[in-house]
Design goal:
The complex is a heterodimer of chains A (95) and B (139). Chain A is an all-alpha fold. Chain A has helices at residues 2-23, 31-44, 49-57, 59-79, 83-94. Chain A has a domain at 61-95. Chain A has five helices and no strands. In chain A, helix 2 packs across helix 3. The radius of gyration of chain A is 25 Å and the shape is flat. Chain B is mostly helical and 139 residues long. Chain B has one domain (6-128). Chain B has six helices and no strands. In chain B, helix 3 (42-59) runs parallel beside helix 6. The chains are: A mainly alpha (95), B mainly alpha (139). Chain A binds chain B through residues 44-48, 50-52, 54-56, 59, 62-63, 65-67, 69-70, 72-73, 76-77, 80-83, 86, and chain B through 35-39, 41, 43, 63, 67, 71, 74-75, 78, 81-82, 85, 89-90, 94, 98, 101-102, 104-105, 108-109, 112, 115-116, 119-120, 122-123, 126-127, 129-132.
Chain lengths: 95, 139
């Protein structure tokens, strides 16, 4: 009973969101990507548009992408200890 | 039975990996350094560089690499990645000196590539030499 109710709730929310977003659709003018496609070579001296966007127009994105890798490694070090780490932890708790 | 390693005992695998090792290094740096001319760049080339750690582990699965050192190098390069655009790009220095735009792109690609390579290397070695609950993954 509870599962059916939650499924109905999810379905209702999905339908409402879909209907509302479809009725209030706004057509945006494609200014940004046209500017990038036509000007990336003069702006950034890169011949590869992906590199131009990653390293110039959207540099913040790349910086935080690099930070995500650091976060993943910190989590990995926390949850996958080495033998020496376990030994050191045991000796530390014994003292 | 669990102590047998296909990689360290197979002469074929050892020879092939030894032969391919410099070419993997070369390909990784090629992808990184040509990131702004051809498809590729820092993240892709860094992943190719990280495959060096995997190849070495397949042939020689002994934990003699200190992942702390690798992680320290990765953090240094990460801080450089955060500092270099803040100093060069956001202040408008790259826009003011258009002659050095290519140099800036190459520098960022190299920084990101080395950072991703060492980061994924740390991740791979951590998983490979995991000694906690359960068994270590072996080829």
């Amino acid at each position: 009973m509870r599962m059916i109710a939650s499924a109905l709730l999810v379905l209702t929310v999905f339908v409402v969101v879909t209907v509302v977003t479809n009725r209030n659709r706004v057509e945006l003018e494609p200014l940004m990507y046209e500017y990038m496609i036509h000007n990336f070579e003069e702006d950034t001296h890169a011949r590869n548009a992906v590199a131009a966007i990653l390293l110039n127009y959207r540099m913040y994105d790349t910086m935080f992408e690099a930070l995500i890798l650091l976060t993943a490694i910190i989590g990995m070090k926390q949850f996958l200890p080495r033998e020496s780490d376990i030994q050191a932890g045991k000796e530390h708790s014994r003292e | 039975m669990s102590d047998t390693n296909v990689g360290s005992e197979s002469t074929i695998l050892r020879l092939i990996v030894g032969l391919l090792y410099p070419f993997m290094l070369l390909f990784g740096f090629y992808v990184i350094l040509n990131g702004h001319y051809t498809p590729g760049g820092g993240f892709q080339g860094g992943s190719v560089l990280a495959s060096l750690f995997v190849a070495r582990y397949v042939v020689y699965p002994v934990e003699d690499t200190d992942t702390e050192v690798l992680h320290a190098i990765q953090r240094v390069f990460l801080s450089l990645i955060l500092i270099a655009p803040t100093v060069l790009l956001f202040t408008g220095l790259v826009a003011r000196f258009p002659h050095y735009r290519g140099l800036y792109l190459t520098t960022m690609d190299v920084l990101i590539g080395v950072q991703v390579g060492f980061g994924l290397g740390v991740a791979v070695l951590r998983f490979a030499f995991f000694q906690g609950v359960g068994k270590t993954w072996r080829l």
